[in-house]
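Postdoc handover notes: sequence design on the structure in folder B. Input tokens:
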């Protein structure tokens, strides 16, 4: 057996979630006394590719052709499946990012593999089983699933596994694959970034606000706090429905699922549909003037009080820290 991890790049660079996935995949390889191969698709410089060896990849495959320059779900899934077959990998690890969520099931279908998407822990391989804890019901619960197939695909939630330095000295090598024309029916032509701010799904800190903020004119303090903390801003659904904030910031069951190290919820009641999108956050801080707000039930820290008094004080405290 061997393990394959897909290293997704953003504009030729690897994000922290890639190094988490590589560290996680290496831990699975170690559990099974086998080796780890990383595969990158697209234009990534050799130095950046070599970083995959810093976190435990024994072999680094680089697929860099003009045709595969931009992310195409179907085509990338074919390449990963072919690499998995070439490497005789039994386990394929993919980050559970926006693109990873589309890729993982496609790779699983191509390999006839069982899939654990939204995984948050290493597999428990005791008694010859392969059990994994994963998020379920749009993040409202955790489930433990057993993968019984020979091939297995795991989509790992960002921020759920630590980055572990484990240098192997591996150097990238070119990997050539035949592509199928049928994989190129929908082509990504261009991505226009609407902002240079921290991207919400990848953020390590999220400052999120709800209807308790009263109106869009009051988001200045939320943005200031987020900027000071290097955080992404987010909001509850009614806030984006009302047009106070863009829909891209809406977190929850019908919005984006986040898994930051720190989620600060300001003036948000904590409805179950909102909690569905934040349940894998490591530390949750709630600021709400209602001590009975449901959000306090899942909070690690709570400040009961008026956001308009507390947030400016927090900003001053962070500035003087
Ligand atoms: P409110 O419920 O109005 O709560 C505002 C909170 O602010 C209150 O707790 C109040 O005590 C507090 N507050 C008021 N003033 C202050 C102040 N000055 N200082 C401090 N605190 C203050 N919601 C989502 O967020 N995401 C989803 O994905 C989502 N999907 C849904 C899907 C379905 C099918 C349905 C039916 C609903 C969905 N909702 C979703 C809506 C959800 O049920 C809640 O209505 C919503 O999350 C409430 O938003 P809120 O907490 O911002 O507003």
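Designed sequence:
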């Amino acid at each position: 057996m061997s393990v394959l991890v897909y290293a997704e790049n953003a504009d030729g660079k690897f994000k922290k979630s890639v190094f988490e996935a590589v560290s996680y995949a290496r831990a699975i390889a170690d559990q099974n006394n086998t080796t780890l191969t990383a595969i990158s698709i697209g234009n990534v410089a050799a130095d950046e590719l070599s970083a995959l060896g810093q976190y435990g990849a024994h072999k680094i495959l680089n697929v860099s052709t003009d045709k595969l320059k931009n992310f195409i779900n179907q085509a990338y899934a074919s390449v990963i499946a072919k690499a998995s077959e070439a490497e005789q990998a039994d386990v394929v690890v993919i980050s559970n990012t926006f693109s990873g969520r589309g890729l993982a099931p496609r790779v699983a279908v191509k390999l006839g593999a069982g899939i654990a998407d939204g995984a948050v822990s290493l597999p428990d391989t005791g008694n010859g089983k392969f059990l994994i804890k994963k998020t379920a019901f749009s993040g409202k619960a955790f489930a433990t699933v057993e993968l019984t197939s020979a091939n297995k695909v795991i989509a790992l939630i960002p921020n759920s596994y630590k980055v572990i330095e484990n240098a192997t000295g591996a150097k990238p090598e070119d990997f050539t694959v035949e592509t199928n024309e049928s994989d190129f029916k929908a082509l990504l032509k261009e991505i226009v970034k609407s902002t240079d701010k921290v991207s919400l799904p990848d953020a390590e800190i999220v400052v999120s606000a709800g209807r308790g903020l009263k109106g869009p004119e009051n988001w200045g303090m939320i943005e200031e706090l987020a900027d000071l903390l290097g955080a992404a801003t987010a909001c509850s659904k009614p806030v984006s429905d009302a047009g106070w904030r863009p829909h891209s910031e809406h977190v929850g069951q019908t919005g984006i699922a986040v898994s930051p190290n720190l989620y600060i919820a300001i003036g948000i009641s904590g409805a179950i549909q909102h909690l569905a999108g934040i349940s894998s956050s490591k530390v949750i801080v709630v600021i709400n003037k209602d001590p009975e707000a449901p959000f306090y039930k899942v909070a690690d820290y709570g400040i009961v009080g008026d956001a308009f008094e507390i947030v400016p004080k927090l900003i001053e405290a962070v500035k003087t820290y």
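Context for whoever picks this up: Residues 210-212, 236-239, 252-255, 267-269, 271, 273-274, 277, 287-290, 293, 306-308 surround flavin-adenine dinucleotide (CB under 6 Å). Don't rerun without checking with the PI first.
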